[in-house]
Design goal:
mainly alpha; Amino acid/polyamine transporter I; 12 helices; about 75% helix; amino-acid transport
């Protein structure tokens, strides 16, 4: 986890630096930087599919997370109430996005983004402090959850995918940097890098205590979402789950905004639809509905994290920025920058190739006992 934090902070620094590497030009989209590095057509073919998978995959996982947290909140607040299907809670969560999806741009998401960040820090703090207060469980087991060698290997790969999923800001960092004013005297990379450092400190404060203290308290019995392992104090855990809901509402919109932009660009420029409110309304609502439907059909949080984390997040987060850096800056062979980038590339490719196997196996195992729309 710490190594991934360091590597992804480094690759994020690269992207911030490359945003205005050409005087008088800003690469405001990931694919624009890819086109500059690899060529007009090849850059699109390399970057756009990966970026779309990341953003759509994240939105699907946020649908599942939002629905699960709403259900947990309901069950804690009203334990005597009739049980409601997870599918309905995912629909309730999606209903918010049928409204928020029509916000115009990233600037309009600034308040939502800030709120989401605060909520993330708040519920993470509640999760690890509640775990520490609960104490080490009497039957805690720090061994492998699986009993077979193949099971251990597949779970390890799925875990690597989970870690890869945790660092996903690269896919929207250029779009966010594009909203910052920039002049030759004061380029945007200065304030952007300060923001990235603050964000990564918050990320560390959220992830590390939850992972390490949670494992210390619960061992391998800890559930995929630590808040699902906690019950007491009821009011605090209920609040934490609602904070998760608020956090993923903001996160969904941040990752959906570039997808909306791509969809509308294709509809207008490639399919020659006339730009209109009706087109925008239908396109965005259809996208929200699709991610909701897939989330309802496959609400497997851990498996989805592992699969998408390795398959899509590893390229855009771990090694594509390094490949672009080598292509554009051409550091001398065997010097420190050259070695650093190649190490990141090799690790990223290994994660991309191996971890989806563990995630897919996890999804298959979970789906055996799952009834659709339950």
């Amino acid at each position: 986890m710490v190594l991934s934090w360091i590597i992804t902070l480094y690759t994020l620094w690269q992207m911030v630096q490359m945003h205005e590497m050409v005087p008088g030009k800003r690469f405001d989209r990931y694919h624009e930087l890819g086109q500059h590095a690899f060529g007009e057509k090849l850059g699109l073919y390399i970057v756009v599919p990966q970026q779309l998978i990341v953003e759509v995959g994240t939105n699907i996982i946020y649908m599942v997370t939002g629905g699960q947290s709403l259900k947990k909140f309901h069950d804690l607040v009203c334990p005597s109430c009739k049980s409601i299907k997870l599918s309905y809670f995912i629909m309730i969560f999606a209903s918010v996005h049928f409204v928020l999806a029509h916000l115009p741009n990233f600037n309009s998401l600034s308040g939502i983004s800030l709120t989401a960040a605060v909520m993330s820090l708040a519920y993470s703090t509640i999760a690890w402090t509640a775990s520490a207060t609960k104490g080490v469980q009497p039957d805690v087991d720090y061994g492998y959850e699986a009993s077979t060698t193949s099971g251990i290997a597949f779970n390890f790969l799925n875990g690597l995918g989970d870690v890869a999923f945790a660092y996903a800001g690269h896919n929207v960092v250029l779009e966010i940097q594009a909203t910052i004013a920039s002049t030759p005297e004061k380029p945007s990379k200065g304030p952007m890098w300060k923001g990235v450092v603050v964000a990564y400190i918050v990320v560390a404060l959220c992830y590390f205590p939850v992972a390490f203290i949670g494992y210390w308290m619960f061992g391998n019995s800890m559930k995929e979402n630590i808040l699902m392992s906690l019950e007491k104090p009821t009011w605090l855990i209920a609040i934490a789950n609602m904070l998760v809901v608020i956090h993923v509402i903001g996160g969904y919109q941040i990752y959906a905004m570039p997808v909306f932009d791509m969809i509308e660009t294709v509809l207008v420029k490639k399919m020659h639809f006339k730009p209109s409110f009706t087109l925008r309304f239908i396109a965005r609502n259809v996208y929200v509905a699709i991610t909701m439907f897939i989330g309802i059909c496959f609400p497997f949080f851990g498996g989805l994290l592992g699969f998408f984390g390795g398959f899509a997040f590893a390229p855009t987060t771990y090694f594509l920025p390094c490949v672009m850096w080598l292509s554009l800056y051409k550091p001398k062979m065997f010097e420190f920058s050259w070695w650093t980038n190649w190490i990141c590339i090799v690790l990223g490719v290994v994660i991309m190739v191996t971890t989806p196997i563990g995630g897919l196996r996890n999804i298959i195992l979970q789906s055996k006992n799952y009834e659709f729309f339950s």
